[in-house]
Amino acid sequence: MRFVLRRLGFFLLTLWVALTLNFALPRMMPGNPALAAIANHKGVISPQALKALEAQFGLNTHQNLVAQYFKYLGDTATGNWGESLTTQPGNSVARIVLDAIPWTLGLVGITTVLAFILGTVIGIVGAWRRGGSLDSLMPPLFVIMTVIPYFWLGLILILIFGVKLHWLPYFFTYNITLTPGLNWAFISNVLEHAILPAFTLLLTTIGTWILTMRNTMITTLAEDYVRMARAKGLPGHRIMFDYAARNAILPNLTGFAMSLGFVVGGAILIEEVFNYEGVGYLLLQAVNNDDYPLMQALFLLITVAVLLAILLSDIAVAILDPRTRGAS
Amino acid sequence: MAIMAPGDPGSASQPGQATPLALGRTGDAPAGTGRITGARSLRRMTRALTSNRKAMAGALLLLFFCLVALFPGVIAHDDPNAEIYPRSLGPSAQHLLGTTAFGQDMFAQVVWGTRPVLLIALLAGFGATIIAMLVGVASAFLGGAWDGTLGLVTDVLLVIPLFPLLIIIASYLHGAGTTVLIAVIILTSWSYTARQLRAQALSLRNRDFLNAARVRGERSLYIIVVEIIPTMTSLLVAAFLTNALYAVLFSASLQFIGLGDPSTTSWGTMLYWAENAEAFQTGQALWIIVPGLCIVALGAAFALLNYAFDEIGNPALRPVRSMRGKRVKRAG
Q1: Are the C-beta atoms of residues A86 and A44 closer than 8 Å to each other?
Q2: What is the per-residue pLDDT for A138?
């Protein structure tokens, strides 16, 4: 219990730091970025939005910093995130963000689960067949896979499967001539559009799961209880999964719980390359258009998702691994 | 506070493992045995490196890029920025990779683009490692409130999503130059390695040679600089490699979305301009393929070296081949 409470405290502290960063960053920058945004987008920004922006960034207001800060905290807590300046002028930030979330959750969420399952199994089998062809090929291959920039792999897949072979669509979340609805034509179109970005993500993330699993598994395979299981003459697959993998999977499970938090903000560049209209794509649009209210809300959303996932994974580990409860 | 016992691979707060580049480390590196002076451990490291094939491949790749970055003019005779050639040419003897849609020689761009990338990697990697070392060693050695505070700062920075944070900062700065880019990457990326270094320093804290130094009445600074840091040489090199790799990927990503300085010639900005000019649709695939391959090769150099260090530190991970037959294969 104390463990969970302490982690909760850490959660709140980090949340506060993220909120404060959001507030302080634009005010710390040389020249107020809001001024630049106003100058860059004259005419696009409505008078009310301009006023809101000025209030948000502490321009022409007679409030002192402390008062601004508390107003900001209050607004954020009550979901009063302002309206978009330039990306979708006049629409409330909350609405825009809510529209983008399902796309990201669907694409990145499902791919993350797939990558985790596939990678873990490959890692288990690779470590079990130590010295086999899979095992000797894997480490160097996946070390290189993990350094491929997401966005570049996406571009290459676009080149091969989109531009050259014309097999798959590579722009947008679905064909805009279709009306969204629960019919096969629409759903299959959505799936088709998700294949290339999902594959990109899968290829670049699976290496970490494989290597982590393999390396812990190798350490575990040297344990006495594994030798004992062998001495008892248990079948290989039982030793592999029930004795070794079961004990070696904890680092991968923690990593998985946390990577669920990175789902929301984890594929920014992939979404950008494929014009996939999720949270990451939205963030870059906001950045390119100096749409600060939208940008701040998205950064906060991404941070909160990560923090929540870490909190949950801590609690899960505390339940799964009795050693952590006593430790420190 | 949330600081776990060092070396406990199941400890709850290792968010580093969720980041795509954690490269599958298992727990913390085992502590060195006894006292090793800096020079000797360096020599041992060099020997270990030359006998490891992954390390050799990584080192040769890195050396190659260093040479290109030092003498770009020897390899490519064209001015990388001059827009003086016919546009969108295919590869030829004159222009090995063809020309861009703006009439620049692409080969010259790739060659000259090596320098800023390597500069960012080395400087940001070095800077982040220095901060990580100071924070990690100080919090392990000073203990108490210092440890609590520094550990807290490290942990908070570790869980805040770095890439979105980098994007936001870069966007407020409006087209940051290379110096600012390096500074921002250093400030945001030291935390992961700080944690590893702290764990290592903690495991050293009660060694006899440190107690002896304390009994001799040496000052803390002397103990940290002369006694502790030299024993961590190999871990510091590994930390540097990790940070340099992050710097390469982060800077390339930021430049790709136009948040670097688009007027400098580097691999990331080449990709930015190529995407803007719709290089695929106009049949200029090389414009995108080559700079990307360079990023992958440089990243692989750092990653291979780093992985080899892991193998050197943890012999269980080495390929079975090198261990005389398959003795270890089934432990029976």
Answers
A1: yes
A2: 76
